[in-house]
Amino acid sequence: MANDKVILQVENLVTAFDTEEGRIRAVDDVSFEVKKGQTLGIVGESGCGKSVTALSVMRLLPKPTGIIENGRILFDGIDILGLPADRMHEIRGRRISMVFQEPMTSLNPVHKIGKQLGEIFQLHFQGMADQDIRDESIALLHKVGIPEPELRMEEYPHQISGGMRQRVMIALALACKPDILIADEPTTALDVTIQAQILELIKDLQRESGMVVIFITHDLGVIAEVCDDVVVMYAGKVAETASAFELFKNPQHPYTQGLLNSIPRLEIPRKTKLNIIRGIVPSLYELPSGCRFRNRCPHAMEICATEPPPLLSVGEDHYASCYLYTGSQNNF
Ligand code: SF4
Question: How many domains does the chain have?
Fold first, then answer.
């Protein structure tokens, strides 16, 4: 259950990459906040900037190509973009953790699972006794639903299933009882039943600990299942933000409407053509002027080609970046 204390505030974040073809802005003026105990979903197609936003929060952008050009990221009131590397190192892992899509690329294939868990405790809790590290590691594996944790401690990542590996990744991320867990497409590589189990696990762990969870996903089903609030991103910008309930009930941005309309539903007769969003996401090298969605938008108007639309209030705690709502009063 969320309370009113804002734990993470992202303000006007601009993250760019230097490439051979020049500098591109993968995240352009993105703002959102997350309250304690809340689950936030950041949703969008691949390349929309959602993962880059997460890597910016973790300060894990590839160096030297990834650059935060502008903005602030306040964690518990501290602007983490201004922190020296050693202070950020303490926060990363201990207070903000991340789980990635493919655990095989994050787990070390040549170290046993017990060793990998132990290293986290050694790194963040120096002086912890070996027996305590072992006990804590086994307890954590047990907590994330891994059967016979004592035996799994002695196994290598390739000896367990994909679902179990993802549980190990979650155990690693939770070892330091973080305030924020960022889960980047944590279930995409898993089959549907395992996917549901992992989502249920994260939900249970969140309820128990009160940590904030930020889900990065392209899957609106995941959002509906677990999130309190949603940020919809398109081509590096926020298209719409609202509570999950409001977003599904009353989507306002034409992109969100298109995403929701393109979900197959059981009540629609078979062989009915799915509603798809025409066109493709623009390349960050060749963005259209004005609204980045305008080449795909069924409501595009002349004004849409001028400036990028600001986020406009379209309801209580509900904002959309679209000129259809210029009659609204409050900008974000
Ligand atoms: Fe469509 Fe214009 Fe709104 Fe963009 S600003 S989503 S082009 S109506």
Answer: 2
